[in-house]
Fold:
Amino acid sequence: MTDRAQITYEELALILEALDDAAFYRDSRSHVLRSAKRRTLRSHSPAIDGEGGGPDVHQSKAKAYAALAIELRNKSKEK
Structure:
């Protein structure tokens, strides 16, 4: 896998913005699901969202997106 895709700075900026948005969405969703989980524990019903995951799934994806955005930003500054 030696071929690398060439992207412009404008495309990179858009990718980074999308990663920031995705990380924000996942982080927000994880907080909403944690709150729903606390409420449903009181009513004894499971708290799983429509995507089939609980709050931890969204939190881990938010962290992964944020880490990737940081990595891409650092690499773009090196060039």
Summary: The mean pLDDT is 80. The two ends are 21 Å apart (CA to CA).
